[in-house]
Amino acid sequence: MLQSVFNLAGGAVGTVLGAANGLAELAYAATSDATTVAPGRVHVPLRGVHTSDAAVAAAVEEQLAEHPAVCRAEVNAALGHVMVEFDPDLLPVSEALDLVADVEQENGLSSEPYTRQEHPGNARRALQEAALLGIHTAALVYTTVGRAVPAAPVALPASVLALIDASPRLRGYVARAVGEPAADALLSTGAALSNGLGKRPLGLLVDACQRFVLYQESQARRRAWAVWEDALADHEGAHRAMPRPVGPRPAPIPPGPVEKVADLTPLAALGGAAALLAATRSVPLATTALALGAPKAARSGREGFAAQLGRDAAAKGTLVLDRNVLRRLDRVDTVVLDEDVLLTGRQAVDDVVPLAEEPGSGLSELVERAHDLVDLRRPLRARTNEGWSVEPAEPEPAGRLGEVAASLGRRSSTVLTLRRGSEPVAVIGISPALDPFAESVVAAASRAGLVLVGGPRALSRRLELDGAVPGGATLTDSVRALQTGGHVVAVVSRNHRTALVAADVGIGVVGPGKPPPWTADVLTRTAGEVCLLLDAIGVAQQISHRSAQLAVGGSGLGGLLAVLGPPTGAAGRAAIPVHTAALVALGLGTWSGISLARRPGPIPADRTPWHAMSARAVLQSLHSARTGLSEHESHLRQRDRPAIDEQHDVGITKASLEELANPLTPALAAGAGVSAATGSILDPLLITTVLAVNALIGGVQRVGAQRALRTLRKSSAARVHVRRGESDVELRADQLVEGDVIRLQAGDAVPADSRVLTGHDLEIDESSLTGESVPVAKSNRATSARAIADRNSMLYEGTVVAVGRTDAVVVATGDRTEAGRAMRQNGEQAPPTGVEIRLRKLTARALPISIGAGVVLVVSDLLRRRPAGIALTRAVSLAVAAVPEGLPFVATVAELAAARRLSARGALVRNPSTIEALGRVNVLCFDKTGTLTEGRISLRQVSDGTDTVSVDEPLRPDLQDVIATAVRASPFRADPHQVTHQTDRAVLRGARTLGVSAENGHAVVEQLDELPFESRRAYHATLWRGRTGTRISLKGAPEVVLPLCSARRRNGETQPLDERTRAAIDEEVHRLALQGHRVLAVAQRRIADRTQLTEDDVTELEFRGLVALVDPVRPTAAQSVATLRAAGVEIAMITGDHPSTAQSIASELDALNGRTVMTGAELEELTDSQLVEALPRAAVFARVTPAQKARIVQVYQQRGLAVAVTGDGTNDAPAIRLADVGIALGARATAAAREAADVVVTDDRIETITDAIVEGRGMWTSVRDALSILLGGNLGEIAYTLATGIAGSNGGLNARQLLLINLLTDVLPAMAVAVRPPADATPEQLLAEGPEQSLGGALTRGIQVRAAITATSAGIAWLLARPVSTAGQASTTGLVALVGAQLGQTLAVRGRTPLVAAAVAGSMVLLAVAVQVPGVSRVVGSRPLLPHQWAIALTAAVGATGAQLLAQRLLTRV
C-alpha cells in the first residue's frame, strides 16, 4: 500500500518537474536570438533577406563561410532565416549569433525589418499559448474558489472584448495596429481578466480549452521542425531558398461560413447596442446586445479543428510553415494537382493493340514481345530481337495501322509499331507512368471540390478529373485566373515554387533527396500526408458550417434568456448560451480532427503490369520460382511486410474515447458547461463522470467484441495450399507473401491477387469483384487488357475458382490487393443495421424531449421571477435526467452477447450486427442436401432404364457394368479423402461396397483427362484408355445426358435410342425421383485415340443405365420447418436436384403448404416483375443454376423481405453473398461458401439454424426490454421533476441526484437485460418476436406504462413524505422511490434472470450508500432517511412492481 502511495507521489512529482522543465526550456528558447539550436547548427532570423535579391543572400552565405569554424551557411529567404553549421569546439553558439549580426550589418540589413512569417521552430508561439492558458486557468480557479468575493461590474468590457475577438474584421484592425501575436495576447488576456472579475467561469473554460489545443498545436509544429531539420542536416543546399515572391491576390478571398457570420453579427450587435443605448439610456441592455453579437462558436469550432489537424499532421510528419493556412481550408473549393505529383517521370507500356482483327492466342505473344523490346528509358529508340522489332510509328500511316495508331495516340503520348520481320503486327502505346498514389490523391481531392490538373488534358481524361489548366511555367497564371474567377485554390506540387506562393493553400511534396519547396504553406513527404490535408478540406467546410449555426443558435437562445429575466443580469444570461455553443463547437471541431486523423491511409497502386508479363518474367521480378519460396525466405518477407498491412486492435482507452462520439455526448457536455456557468462545481464533475463511465462500459464491450471476432476469424480463416519446394504446406490466407506459389482447385476462394502460372480448364467466378455472374476463363497467357475484368491471366482476392485447378504466384496481399485497396480508398462504413436505425430515431426523439423539458422548466421559473442561476440549474438537472446514457450501446451489447451464445452452440457469427438481421429474417432458402437431409448420400438402386434393382439384391453383370461406368465417370484415381463432390463420393463408396471397380470387364483402365462436374454442364465426364481402345464415360442429370445419347446398350446389345425408349426411361427417372432419389444417367462411347477431352467430344453416347442415390431426411427437419413457419418464416427449397426428388422431400417435410415446384427452365422464361408475382406460389425451385439462385434471392428482396440463404458449395457463394444473412454449412462447406457467409454453422444441423434465428428474434426482445427501462424510466423522471418543479416547491431533484438515478437504473440493469434473453421464454415465444413486434407498438406501450408507474409511485411517495419530513428528506424519499420503482419494474420484467437480479441488488446497495452515508449523501445532494421515510419509499417501489406485473398481464391479452 505504501509503495503504491510512493509510486503515485513520485509520478505526480515527475509530472510537475517535467512541466516546469518544459516551460523553462520554452522560456529560454523564446528569449534566445536563435530560433532553433541543434548540435553544431543554428537557425537565426535574418533581417531584410525575405525581400532582398539573390545576390544579397549569396553574399551573406559567402561571408559567413569565410569564418574558419563555419562549415556551411544557407540562407532560407522564404522563412527569413539563415542556417549556420559550425564546429562547436571552435565557435560557441553566442559567437555564431554575433557573427550573423556582423554579417547582417556589413550587408546593410541591420535596419531592415524581420519577416512576419512565423518560423515553425519558434518557441515564442508555444510560450505565449502556455502563458495565456495559465492566465485563463488561474482566472477559472479564482471564479471557483473566490465565490465569496462579489463580481466586478465588467459586463461591458467583457462583451466588447468578446465581440472584437470573434470578428475577423475587428480583430484584423487590432492585429494591423500591434501585430497578430500581440493582438492575440492582448484580447485573450483582457477577456480572461474581465471574465474572471465578472465571475463567468464558462467563458474562461472555453478560452482555457481553446488555448490548450493551440498550445498542443504549437508544440507539435516545433517537434515536426526538429525532425525535418535533423533529416535535412546532411543534404547540401536543403535549407537554401529564394524569397517568397510577394504579389497581391487578384481578388479578395471570398468569405467562408465563419467570416459571413462573424462579420455580420458584430456589426449588427454594435448597431443594436448603439440604438438601445440612445433609446433607453440602459447600459445593461446595450451590453446584452454586444454579448449576443459575439459569434464565439464560429471561430472556436474552426480553431479546434485546425489545431487538432495541425497536431495530427505534425505527428504524421507534415511540417506546417504557415499555421493560418489550416484556418483557410474551409474556404477552398478548387484543388489544382500539378502533374509532377501525379507522375513518376518514367514511361510505361500503356497498351498493345494487334492489327489482326482476331489475333486469338497470338495476342499474348505480342504483349510479351512488346514488353521485351521497348526501352522505357528511351521509348523512341528502335530495337530488334529474334526477328521482332519495334520502332516509332510513321507520322500518317495508311490503312488499319493508321486507324489504330490514331486511336491509340489520343490517349498515349508515344506510339510505336511492332513488326515481325517487316510485317507490322501491333501498335504499342507508351504513356508517362502514374505515381502509385495518384488515384488516392485524386480521390481525396475530389472530396474537397473541383479537381483540376496543372498539365495536359490527356492526363485529366486519364484520371477522370474535372478538367485541366495550363501547367509548367504558366501554372502560376492559371492559379491567379482561378482566383480572379472567385475560386479559393489549393495547389499540390513538388517544385513549382511560385504557384505554391500564389495559391491560397500551397501543399509542397518533397521527394527523396530533393530540397523542400520552402515557399509552400505546408510541406509533406508522403501521399498519406497529402491525402490527410485534402480530406481535411471537406471536413473543415462541415465544421465551419456547423460552428456558424451553433453561433447563431447560441445568440438566439441567449436573447431569449435575456428577455425572460431582469435587465440587470441580462448580459450574463445572454453570455451563457453563447459560451456553451462555443464549447460545443470547440469540442466538435477537435473531435472531427481526431476522427479525420484516424482514417486509413492511402494504398499504393502496383503499376507492375503482371498481367502483361510472361510467367517467367513475373517469377523473376518476384525472385521466386515455380516451386515457390523457401520457408526461410517466406519468414523474411513476412517480417519485412510493409506496416500498412498491419492492423492493430483498438485498446480500451482509445475505444472508450471513441464511444463518446454519439449524439448524447454534446447534450451532457452542454449541461456540464451550463452548470459550471452557474457556479456549480460538483454537477459538471458528476456529469463528466457519467460520460466517462458510459464511455468505459462501451469501450470494454467493443474491445471484447474485437477479441471475439479476432478469435473467430482465426478459427474460420480460409486455408490455402502453398508450394514449398517439392511439397505443399497449408497456410492461412493472411500468412501469404508476394512470391508464394499457391495451388487452387474448384471451390477455393482466391486468397490474394495472383498471376496464373498453370491452369487446367480454369474458370473463375468474379461476381464479387466485377458483378459478372458468368465464370471467366483464365490462362497463363499474357494480356494487355486495361480493365481488370479482361485480365485473363490474373486472379483477384475474393473471387472463387468455379472450375478447374491452377498454380499461381501471389503478387499482392491484404490492403494492396485490388479489393483491399478499393475498400481502403473508399473508406466507407457498413450501412447502419435495422436496430441502429431505430435507436437513432429514438435518440432523435429523446434529445428534443430532454431540451424541451428543460426549456419548459426554466421558462416557468423565470416567469415566476426566480433567480436565473437557480432556474438554469433546475433546467439542466431536468435535461440531464432526460438523456438516456445507456442508449447508444444497448444494441451492441445485446448483439455481442447473442453472438457469443451462438458460438457455443455451433454457429460462428462473423459480425455481431448479423444477429439483428437474423431477427428480421422472414424467408429462409434451403439447399436441401445436408440441411433438411442427413447429408449421407448413398447408392440405393441401379437400373438399365427398364429394370430397376436395389443394391441389396444380387446384381446382374449388365447392372454391375452400369455401376462400373458410373465409377469411371468419377475421379476414381483420386484419394478418397480428396474427392470433393458428394455424389462422386457416394458412387465410389457404393461401388466399393458392392465390389465393383473401374476395371470391371477391362484388364487396364488408364485415366487420361476429365471434365469435372459443374452446374453449367451438369455432368462429369472422363477420358480413359483400356486395352481395347479409348472411351468416354459420363454420368449426370438425365435431362442433360439423354439428349447426348444416340443409342442404348442393354443386355450386351446396342440399339437405337428412339422416342418410345426415351419416354420409358424418362418415366422411370420420374418414378425414382418421386421416391426421393437423386437420379443420375450413365453413358459411354468409344472415341479415337487422344489424351485431352473437350465438351465437343461429349456426343453420340450410348446410354447404359441409371443409378439412384438417396439422402435420408433428418428426423428433426419436419419439426424445425413447422416451427419456423409458425414464426412467420417462409421456407423455400432451392436445389439442383430433379423436380420430382425435390417435391418428394418437400412433401415429406410438409413444406409445400399448397405451393408448387418451379424449375430453372420455367424461371428463366419469367421477367423479374412476373417472378415477383410467382414467388409466393412456389415452395421448391429445382434444377436451378447459381445465377438463378442469386436471382431468386434478389427478387425476394425486391418484395421487401429479409432473406437468409444456406449453402455449402462454390455455386452457392453468389446467393449467400447477396442474402441479408448468408449461412454456410461449415462441416463440408467450400472455402468460397465460408468466405461469403455471415454465419458458419459447424454441425450442419437445421436445429442450429433455427437456434440462430431464435437468438436473432430474442435479441429484439432484449433490446425492447432494455429500451423500456431506459426511455420509460427517464420519461418518468421528467414527469416527476416537472410536476414537483412547477408546483413551486423544493421537491425537484438536482442534476447530481438525477445522474445517480440514471447510473443506478439505466446502465447496470439495462445492460444486464440486454445481454440475456428472457429466462422463462420458450423458443416459440422468442420466434414470435421481431422488429415490428418488439420495437413497434409493444415498445411504445412499454415505455408509456413504465413512465406512468415510475412518475406516479415517486410522486405519491414524495407527497406522503412531505408532512413527516423536512424538504430535503421528502426530496430524498422521492429519489429512493424513483430508483426503487424502476428497479422493481426491472425485476418484474426480467427477475428470473440471475444477472438482472444481481444488477438490481447491486444498484439498491449503491443507493443505500448514497443516501445514508453522510459524506456521500451531501455530495449527491440528498439527506439520510429515517425508517418511516424508507418505508414510504420502499412501499411505493413495491406498489410499482405490482403495477408492472399487472400491466404485463393486461398488455399480453391485447
UniProtKB/TrEMBL annotation:
**Catalytic reaction(s) noted:** ATP + H2O = ADP + phosphate + H(+)
Q: Give membrane topology per the record.
A: Multi-pass membrane protein
Domain (Cation-transporting P-type ATPase C-terminal) ranges: 1293-1441
Q: Which domain of life is it from?
A: Bacteria
Q: Which UniProt keywords are given for this protein, alphabetically ordered? A: ATP-binding, Magnesium, Membrane, Metal-binding, Nucleotide-binding, Translocase, Transmembrane, Transmembrane helix
In terms of one coarse class, where is the protein primarily found?
membrane
Does the keyword field hold tRNA processing?
no
Query: P-type ATPase A domain spans which residues?
Result: 716-824
Q: Where found?
A: Cell membrane
Q: What is this protein called?
A: HAD-IC family P-type ATPase
From which organism does this entry originate? Pseudonocardia alaniniphila
